[in-house]
Design a protein that fits this description.
By secondary structure, the protein is mainly α. Helix content is 65%, strand content 7%. It contains eight helices and three strands; from the N terminus they run αααααααβββα. The chain has a three-stranded antiparallel sheet. β2 (263-271) and β3 form a beta hairpin.
């Protein structure tokens, strides 16, 4: 018994103060125990609140993610629909562009044929070749090289399109659209290079043989053209009753004047135009009027001078109007140049 009491005293001495409080009810120890219990309870309450909040957030996130996935599905459907529309539109544009390019190139080649045939007939066969004519070769050689480059690119783009269309190669919508755009660009460039080469050739041949003036200037005499100016063009003010008159108007810039708008209005006329005997040239230096056109200001003076001269020299007036065959309609005539820009 004594031994048991000794062991109990030793254990009690070795126990911590909080354990002693269970038997001794020490006030300080009891308060410390209560405060510690409150802190643990507060922590547990905060933890449970956080866990519940996390649960609610997780449920809300799952719902929103589901809605977001459904929205993405709808957007994907619209995207695919618009991609299909883009492909259809670009395909239609390519088909129409192929047709238009074929028609335009065919017509242009026909124009080339006619142009070069005229050049051959009027220059080459007559032995009028000049060294400058090699410009036609250089122009068309440059055009052919440019067309060949675009043709190679067109062949590559069409090959890619065939691979995509047959499924031999995988492609996205953007890849298909890029190929179609490349085809359209090559077709446009081919037509552009051909037109450029043609018009450069046309300009040279036009200057070389007067291609565009053949109908007007090679089928009529100078007298007929001058009479047509008075009858139908800008020289109507030079007409004289009973006399056939031919003339040409002109307006030039006066270079020795400080006024940049200064002009010299002139008109030259001959009568009778079928058998010219008298020539009159009237130049008005810096006329101050509503116009500076020679056909409006100088032509009436020419008509007055020529009429008085013809009457004075006893040239009889014609009783009939001149035949219409001497000059055709004004639509067949070149612009009369009754202004500074066209003088």
């Amino acid at each position: 018994m004594k031994r048991t009491i000794q062991i109990a005293v030793v254990l009690f001495a070795l126990l911590p103060g909080i354990a002693k409080a269970q038997w001794t009810f020490d006030i300080v120890s009891v308060e410390a125990y209560i405060n510690d219990h409150k802190k643990q309870r507060s922590l547990l309450l905060a933890r449970s609140t956080l866990e519940y909040s996390n649960k609610l957030l997780h449920e809300y996130s799952c719902k929103e993610i589901g809605d977001y996935k459904e929205l993405n599905i709808d957007l994907d459907k619209y995207t695919r629909a618009f991609d299909a529309i883009d492909v259809m539109y670009q395909s239609l544009r390519t088909v129409l562009n192929v047709k238009n390019t074929y028609t335009s190139v065919s017509d242009r080649i026909g124009d080339y044929k006619s142009l070069l045939e005229d050049f051959n007939a009027k220059i080459l066969k007559r032995g009028r070749i000049e060294s400058a004519d090699t410009l036609i070769i250089s122009i068309n050689a440059r055009g052919l090289r440019a067309i060949a480059r675009e043709g190679e690119q067109l062949y590559k783009s069409v090959s890619d399109l065939v691979l995509y269309a047959t499924g031999a190669a995988a492609c996205s919508t953007s890849d298909l659209l890029m190929v179609l755009e490349a085809i359209n660009r090559s077709l446009d460039n081919i037509e552009r290079h051909l037109n450029r080469a043609y018009f450069e050739t046309w300009r040279y041949i036009q200057v070389r043989i007067g291609y565009w003036k053949a109908k007007v200037y090679r089928s009529r005499t100078m007298r007929e053209m001058m009479e047509a100016v008075v009858l139908y063009g800008g020289g109507r003010n030079a007409q004289i009753a009973g006399y056939r008159v031919g003339g040409k108007s002109g307006t030039s810039q006066k270079l020795d004047s400080a006024d940049e708008k200064a002009r010299i209005a002139s008109f030259v006329a001959a009568a009778p135009i079928d058998d010219p005997q008298f020539l009159c040239l009237v130049c008005l230096d810096e006329p101050h009027s509503w116009t500076t056109a020679g056909g409006s200001l100088s032509a009436p003076v020419c008509a007055e001078v020529l009429e008085q001269t013809l009457v004075y020299r006893g040239v009889p007036r014609a009783t009939e109007a001149p035949a219409a065959s001497t000059a055709e309609t004004a639509a067949d005539l070149p612009a009369d140049g009754d202004s500074f820009d066209g003088a």
